[in-house]
Every structure is written in structure tokens, then in C-alpha cells.
Amino acid sequence: MKLGLIGLGKMGYNLALNLHDHNHEVICYNRTDTKTKQIEKEGLQGAYSLEELVSKLDKPRIIWLMIPAGKPVDDMINNLLPLLDKGDILIDGGNSNYHDTLRRYQDLKAKGINFVDVGTSGGISGARHGACMMIGSEDKIFKIIEPFIKDVCVENGYLHTGQNGSGHYVKMIHNGIEYGMLQAIAEGFEILEHSDFDLDYEKIARVWNHGSVIRGWLMELMEKAFSKDPKLESIKGEIQSSGEGLWTVQEALDKKVPAHVIAASLFVRYRSFQDDTFSGKVIAALRNEFGGHDVVRK
Q1: What is the DSSP string of 32-65?
Q2: Mean pLDDT of the chain
Q3: Residue 131 and residue 7 share a domain
Q4: Which single residue of 152, 255, 279, 288 has CA 20 to 30 Å from 119?
Q5: Is 5 helix (H, G, I), strand (E, B) or coil?
Q6: Has residue 196 been placed in a domain?
Q7: For 127-142, what is each residue's pLDDT tens digit?
Q8: CB 108 within 8 A of CB 77
Q9: Is the four-CA dihedral 263, 266, 271, 277 of positive or negative sign?
Q10: Which residue numbers are catalytic?
């Protein structure tokens, strides 16, 4: 199949190579030319403007967006719209908020453009060698794109989750679960770090990943990280968050669903950027006032 791919970041670049490996004809466009020239050296076709990209595609055109969520997606859609025809298909493979996805679907449907949301998991290696994808789409459109979706995913690694918006919704919850899992692993190793034993964290991660209840890819990656830096002394404990954890907690609040672990893991990420907190000072001061408990002076 022939399709266009916009966005040659870490995920988009590797996804393009994956599609190419499966004999799909991919026309690649990136905001800056460097990545486009680089992927041309890999044997893929490049386009240096949206007009060129669209002109190289057969109707109905299929264009896959792999760009940051939010305004960049809206801007790209607005730039593409004058170049598209009714029946063309736009795929958003980024981590968009599902509310935005529902809005975009309705707006594009009114213009005769088909819109698909694809929640993509598996990281960079998944994009390159076999991803996990959750697809929200009308049935007839899913049947058109399924062949190349199947090709770039691991076996049993894709699902037509249902109507538009559901792909990004399921991926959002997936990322919320990921927050909680990462936090549990982190807390476990922090307790080990404070123990009285001389422990090898790389070997512990390795044995936990062979036959234990908590074995899995995250533990495999943990072993890999400790092999590079046994005490993680070269990095700071600041944890970035890209939004899906917050959206999951907001959804839990809206639906009145208790989500203690996911919410707590989100707050830990925010706390990781603070060396000291005013709230901590308030509590310490109060404990000192009502109970004479010690405070740590600067």
C-alpha cells in the first residue's frame, strides 16, 4: 500500500522503516529537512512540502500523522485540508487527548475526510520491529488500513477498539496503568536501596524477570538500566510526564472511579521536580507547634 507519513521523530522515523520493511510505499515528510534527507538514504521517498507529499499519493490518500499532541495536530490538519479531497484518510498515531480526537473526527467528517485514531505502544523498538496499536475507526475505514496496521504490529498486537476516539481512550488508560506499574517498581527498589543488605539490583531485576509474578518488559528494561549504572548515580530523579496520566486521573474523577495508585503516581512525578516544598514546611511547622516535634533547620 502507498501512504504518507508526517513526523520523523523517534517514533515516526522507526514506524516508516517498519512499513518500508513490509513493502509498503511510504512518502515521508518532516518539518525540518534533515530527517527527510536521512530517511531517503534508507531507501524511502521524501517530500519537502505538504503539497509534494499529497501530490505523490494515490486517491483516496492515506496520511499518517506522528507528531506531538495538541496544537501541532490541529495546525497540521488545517494545513492539509485545502490539499485533500473527500474520501481521504487521516490517521493520528500520537498520544492525543480523546476529547480532541472526537472533536477532530466530527469536524473532518463534516468535510468528507475520514479520521482514525491510533494509540501506539511499545516504544521506539516497537515502532521499528513490532508495535501494539489500539485503533478507533469506522468499520469501513478500518478494513482499508488494516493490512498495514497488521504488518507493523506484533502478533495479536492490534485491536479495532471501536468507534472513533476509543483508540486514544484505551491508550490513555494504558498509560495511566503504566504510571502505576512504574511507581510500584520504583518504590520496591527504593526500599531495597534503604535495606541493610549489599544487593546487586541488576541481578535482582534479572531474576525477577525469570519466572516471577512481576516478570515482563519493564523488568527487562530495569535490568538493562542497572547494567549501565548500578546505582543510577548519573541521573536525577526528575520524572517527566506527557499528559496521559493526568488525563486518566481526570477521567477517573469525571466518572467517579477510585484510582488511588494512578493518582498517587502522578503526584510523585510532580513532586520529583521539587527540591523542597512549602507544603512540607507547613506540615513540619504544625507538628512542631502542636507536638514539639523536631524540624530540620537550614
Answers
A1: SHHHHHHHHTTT-EEESSHHHHHHTSPSSPEEEE
A2: 95
A3: yes
A4: 255
A5: strand
A6: yes
A7: 999 999 999 999 999 9
A8: yes
A9: negative
A10: 171, 178
First vs last Cα of the chain: how many Å apart? 65
Q: Are residues 197 and 135 in the same domain?
A: no
Residue 96, helix vs strand vs coil: coil
- For residues 152 and 179, membership in a common domain is answered with no
More confidently predicted of 274 and 121? 121
Distance, in Å, from the CA atom of 116 to the CA atom of 135, rounded to the nearest integer, reads: 7
pTM above 0.70, yes or no: yes
Paired strand residues for 64: 5, 91
Please indicate, yes or no, if residue 249 is contained in any of the structural domains: yes
* Count: domains in the chain: 2
Give me the residue label for grid cell 527540591. 275
Question: Alpha-carbon distance 7 to 88, whole Å?
Answer: 19
Is residue 290 domain-resident?
no
Residue-number span of the structural domain to which 65 is assigned: 2-163
Q: Are residues 7 and 126 in the same domain?
A: yes
In a domain, residue 82? The reply is yes
CA distances from 200 to 97, 187, 189, 192, 235 (A): 40, 16, 11, 10, 18
Same domain, 24 and 152: yes
User: Which helix (H) or strand (E) is 151 found in, with range?
Assistant: helix 139-152
pLDDT tens digits, 209-250: 999 999 999 999 999 999 999 999 888 888 888 789 999 999
pLDDT of residue 280: 76
Nearest to 145 by CA among 90, 81, 211: 90
- Structural contact between residues 249 and 238, judged by C-beta atoms closer than 8 angstroms: no
Q: Residues 151, 17: one domain?
A: yes
Inter-residue contact 88 to 59 (CB < 8 Å): yes
Residue 254 has pLDDT above 90, yes or no: yes
- Please tell me the distance from the alpha carbon of residue 27 to that of residue 269, in angstroms, as a whole number: 38
Supply φ then ψ for residue 9, to 5 degrees.
Answer: -75, -165
Task: Tell me the backbone φ, ψ of residue 199, rounded to 5 degrees.
Answer: -115, 150
